[in-house]
Design a protein that fits this description.
With 167 residues, the chain is mainly alpha-helical. Helix content is 32%, strand content 4%. It has a two-stranded antiparallel ribbon with strand order 1-2. Strand 1 and strand 2 (14-16) form a beta hairpin. It is globular and about 40 Å long. The two termini are 13 Å apart.
């Protein structure tokens, strides 16, 4: 998933297109090593290494996509983040209209280590919904300490998506 895979139709419906490499089988299936496809800025580190992907990999891609849509800036490459080659700049530092809770949710989704991210899209969605409704998310687990930190900056609303240049 990346911004270029999201298309707005004339009837205001939003659809996903051009999946490239897709998983087959159950929802717990991992992408086969031979079926890897990566997009710098949107693919998590595990997709580069060939160790396969999981639902947490999809969360990374969704977080990176939201980062790009809300800032108009391509996210940093995940491998460069993982090895400390580049600094992570929280989305609310690029666009102060992004509320700090959304920025923190995006930062959580974009953790270089899969175990430090939400493990399912549903878990991450619950966090985003809680932010949009102004309530604390319900979670059985404590959110892990983040390797990349969101800046303590706040705004009162979520912003409209911004155009992102093609990668």
């Amino acid at each position: 998933i990346k911004p270029q895979n999201i298309k707005a139709m004339p009837n205001d419906q939003v659809v996903l297109v051009d999946f490239g490499v897709a998983k087959e089988g159950s929802t717990g299936a991992r992408t086969a090593t031979g079926a890897r496809g990566v997009t710098p800025g949107f693919s998590p580190p595990e997709q580069y290494s060939g160790s396969g992907s999981s639902p947490a990999s999809d969360v990374y891609a969704l977080g990176a996509t939201l980062y790009a849509l809300l800032t108009g800036i391509k996210p940093p490459d995940s491998v460069s983040l993982a090895i400390g080659e580049v600094d992570y700049v929280p989305p609310d530092q690029h666009n102060p209209a992004i509320c700090s809770e959304i920025a923190a949710a995006i930062t959580w989704a974009m953790q270089p280590k899969p175990v430090d991210r939400p493990q399912t899209v549903d878990e991450w969605q619950q966090r985003l919904l809680a932010v949009s409704e102004g309530v604390e998310p319900v979670s059985d687990e404590e959110e892990p300490e983040s390797e990349i930190k969101a800046a303590p900056q706040a705004a009162d609303q979520v912003v409209k998506p911004q155009p992102v240049p093609d990668p």
